[in-house]
């Protein structure tokens, strides 16, 4: 009897070697992502300081469309549908995997070419769909948005190619370069933002079109960075019109519901754009800046772990190791929520000083800082729910169940569309953020509830106990972050913020070492090892 109990306990404990592999890959992604996101914040800070709100609103609105494709394909349906089948094909034979890569990318090229050409030649129907009539009635602003959208639609072709190349490399266990590549895109954007006006035409000086060209050229560089790694791995795609390839058809079969599900999740940002474009000038820019700030911890935590988890969970499912799969999912969901709850609490308390430090200069006034910080205080909580969704969803895709997340996403989008006008009537833009967060919370809860029915037994009581501890840690972060409001009376605001963040991080890591000794202990050793080698 004791032997059976011991075997059950081992099965329910995440494999240490697998944990090490997932964490190592997630850290590689986190390093690359951190570099890219940090540059992204620099880019947004420069935009806010150097350009008027009509230009920044137009850029943010026009960029939503290609950015939706980035999230949909780069962090979504293409990757999660392709990776499990590629892993299976590669496990069977290299030739089968290569045939899948060739035929799928050829089909993707055809589809992307059509989408890109239509977007460049006929942007008006799309813009009329995603923008409020009040925004469109502002002719000058709309024409700037249209010009930028036409230029940036070419980015869809390159970012989707990047997503496919990234999926191949991730499935082969290569995470660093795919995570670092967006850094080069952000560098191109920073250069285009700082491009001297004297080097631009009179029209470009007025409409800020150099920002759109920066997006396009950055996309070319971003996809080019991955080509050497793909060639070295031997999986650089070649043209193949074998569209009846069995594995290719399976990818598209899985991709259909996934495209709908993740598309609906990403369509939330388009719905928000529609609602925000009906509000005061600058609202679209404020939401864009807050999004970028929230995406920094969210991408470091959730996207990195979720991407690194998918190949591992797919292998567990193929090998019929359901208990190990459930244990890994629970463990990294808890790790994700632990970090995201603490990050959300920190952003809530320090919203205004952080917004002031990052954006409070140039044409971004003190009133702009205050307005944006109120949005951040309301919206920061979405990190908790989005981070959980981004870890749980790959578990469904690993078992090739793409229909349930699709149905759930549709329901959550309907909830958001119904709630947003009601909340906006009462609280304005903050009401829009509350509605978005509520729909994300419903999504996470339902993914958790149905995990037990569709995948494997989930230890809900243990999970809820852990969640209670994590909220306790969040309260500690809120308490420690109050230090800023004491220090600001005795030193410059930026220095007070830096000291406060350092103390908060030290407190957080001290607690983390007790709750997650393997992950944070290993992280500490790796960081110290780098310093000692230097």
Please characterize this protein's 3D structure.
The protein is an all-alpha fold. Helix content is 86%, strand content 0%. The chain contains 24 helices and no strands.
Topology at a glance:
Layout (H helix, E strand, L loop, with lengths): L1 H10 L4 H35 L2 H22 L2 H16 L1 H28 L2 H7 L2 H5 L1 H14 L1 H18 L4 H19 L7 H6 L1 H25 L12 H31 L6 H36 L3 H28 L1 H9 L6 H14 L2 H17 L4 H25 L1 H26 L5 H22 L1 H5 L5 H23 L1 H17 L1
Helix pairs in contact: 2-10, 2-14, 3-8, 3-9, 3-13, 3-14, 4-5, 4-9, 4-13, 4-14, 5-9, 5-13, 8-12, 9-12, 10-12, 13-19, 14-15, 14-17, 14-18, 15-18, 15-21, 16-17, 17-20, 18-20, 19-20, 21-23, 23-24
Output the number of helix runs.
Answer: 24
Percent range of helical residues = over 70%
Report the major sheet.
none
* Count of extended strands: 0
What is the structural class? Answer: mainly alpha
Contiguous runs where pLDDT drops below 50 for at least 5 residues? 1-13, 526-534
């Amino acid at each position: 009897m004791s032997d059976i109990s011991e075997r059950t306990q081992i099965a329910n404990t995440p494999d240490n070697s697998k944990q090490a592999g997932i964490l190592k890959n997630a850290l590689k992604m986190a390093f690359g992502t951190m570099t890219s996101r940090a540059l992204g914040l620099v880019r947004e800070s420069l935009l806010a300081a150097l350009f008027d709100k009509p230009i920044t609103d137009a850029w943010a609105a026009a960029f939503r469309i290609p950015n939706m494709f980035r999230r949909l394909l780069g962090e979504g349906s293409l990757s999660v549908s392709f990776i499990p089948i590629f892993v299976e094909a590669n496990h069977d034979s290299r030739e089968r995997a290569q045939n899948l890569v060739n035929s799928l990318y050829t089909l993707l090229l055809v589809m992307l070419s059509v989408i890109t050409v239509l977007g460049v030649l006929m942007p008006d129907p799309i813009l009329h769909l995603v923008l409020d009539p009040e925004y469109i009635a502002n002719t000058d602003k709309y024409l700037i948005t249209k010009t930028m959208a036409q230029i940036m639609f070419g980015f869809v072709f390159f970012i989707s190619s990047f997503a496919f190349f990234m999926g191949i490399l991730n499935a082969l266990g290569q995470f660093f370069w795919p995570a670092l590549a967006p850094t080069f895109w952000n560098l191109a954007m920073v250069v285009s933002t700082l491009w001297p006006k004297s080097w631009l035409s009179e029209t470009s000086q007025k409409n800020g079109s150099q920002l759109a060209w920066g997006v396009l050229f950055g996309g070319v560089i971003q996809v080019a960075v991955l080509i050497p790694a793909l060639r070295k791995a031997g999986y650089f795609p070649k043209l193949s019109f074998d569209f009846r390839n069995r594995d290719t058809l399976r990818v598209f079969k899985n991709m259909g519901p996934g495209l709908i599900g993740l598309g609906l999740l990403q369509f939330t940002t388009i719905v928000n754009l529609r609602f925000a474009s009906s509000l005061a000038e600058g609202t679209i820019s404020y939401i864009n800046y807050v999004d970028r700030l929230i995406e920094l911890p969210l991408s470091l935590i959730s996207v990195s772990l979720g991407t690194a988890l998918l190949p591992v969970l797919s292998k567990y499912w193929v090998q019929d190791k359901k208990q190990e799969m459930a244990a890994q999912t629970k463990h990294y969901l808890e790790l994700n929520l632990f970090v995201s709850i603490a990050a959300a609490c920190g952003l809530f308390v320090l919203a205004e000083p952080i917004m002031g430090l990052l954006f409070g200069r140039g044409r971004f006034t003190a009133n702009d800082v205050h307005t944006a910080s109120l949005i951040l205080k309301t919206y920061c909580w979405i990190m908790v729910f989005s981070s959980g969704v981004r870890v749980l969803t790959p578990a469904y895709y690993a078992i090739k169940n793409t229909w349930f997340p699709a149905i759930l996403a549709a329901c959550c989008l309907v909830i958001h569309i119904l709630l947003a006008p009601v909340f906006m009537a009462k609280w304005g833009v903050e009401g829009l953020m509350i509605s978005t967060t509520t729909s994300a919370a419903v999504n996470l809860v339902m993914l958790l509830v149905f995990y037990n029915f569709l995948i494997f037994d989930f230890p809900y009581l243990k999970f809820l106990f852990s969640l209670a501890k994590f909220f306790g840690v969040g309260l500690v972060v809120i308490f420690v972050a109050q230090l800023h409001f004491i220090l600001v009376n005795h030193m410059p605001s930026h220095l007070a913020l830096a000291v406060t963040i350092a103390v908060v991080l030290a407190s957080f890591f001290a607690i983390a070492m007790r709750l997650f000794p393997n992950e944070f202990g290993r992280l500490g050793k790796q960081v110290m090892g780098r310093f000692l080698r230097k």
